[in-house]
Amino acid sequence: MSLPQLSPEQLVKPRHFELRMSLIFATLFVPLGTHLPYFPLWLQAKGFHAEQIAVILAAPMFLRVVTTPLLTALADRARDRADVYVALMAASLLLSAGYFLTPTYAMVLAVSLALTIVWTPHSPIADSLALSGVRRFGSNYTSMRKWGSISYLFANIAGGFILSVTGSQAVPVIILVAFAAALAAGLLAPRLGRPRRASPLSATDIQHSAPKLLNPYFLYFSTGVGVITASHAFLYGFVSIYWKSIGLGDSVVGLLWAWGVVSEVCMFMMFTRFFDRFSVVSVMVMAGIGSIVRWIAFPLVWPLGLGIPGFFAVQSLHSVSVALGLIGLQKMIGETISEERTGAAQGIAYFSNGFFMAVVTLASGPLYDRLGVDGFFAMIPIALIGLALIGLAARSAPERRIGR
Q: What predicted TM-score, i.e. pTM, was given to this entire model?
């Protein structure tokens, strides 16, 4: 079915479209760049033990797998996606203030669950606005989106230096202020009118298109990527706590997180030149092996006396274990899934990543409680399972595009 024609109003490019979207991306990732590395430290400072921290981190992951497609579908039907974005950002600002209430386990868990419902759709809705500008006005997506990566790096580094002065009690303050800035930027979001077709995470598209994607290659591959990605759950949930436990300062922790992102961005820049000739299976095998090497090395850095430089070296593997995984998944979808099924494929891959990440995050709390940093060794068999699934995908690879 062909797309409806754009109205004359929709063909008019909003003033400073690229600048306004760049500002949205620049503010969008600051809360995440603070929450991911430092929220576990705040939880620990409030007296929560490892298993409680794991539940507080994992429960929202299970929830958002269900709620995010529903809210992005709502944005597709709204008069303007920007209005939904502003409403969700305002709700995020309001709910993030809940962390200033008495931090009981039940209260923090409830706030985290409520917050994830309205927070997680920010990025796909912002992407939808930017991509509409790409289609209608020929805007450059990467020139707008790069400011999100830059702001995420800034949040990693600046957050570490702030916490080195104030302590972890500043984490809710930084998140609240970051949401306030993102809301202010959201009010400037360009209005583009009703979208012409569903966004990549539309629940309707998933329901109608998913059955045609239920073939061995796609399912093995997307599940394998999800499992390899999930092997990073122990890192995301507890590495900051571990680094602090061996005496590293908050500023160093922030720099270590930022270095991982820098290495990821470098891989994005180098991939076409050095890795584009490899098959998607080879790319994912490299990502899986990089993950295994990372989980072997992490517990050995400090006992072997490699110190902070050793952690920076291991963090450089983020370019392999994470960046190649992200690129490999998109490369597989681009090469084997027909355009009209791409949205459904993205939705299924999102579900796979989110579900397995939540499961392993939940298990990471007891692992850290009992094993400490040696819990990284438990991530090795998880990555191996992911590699086995990629191997099964390779055996069932199609000779033509699927999903038609």
A: 0.81
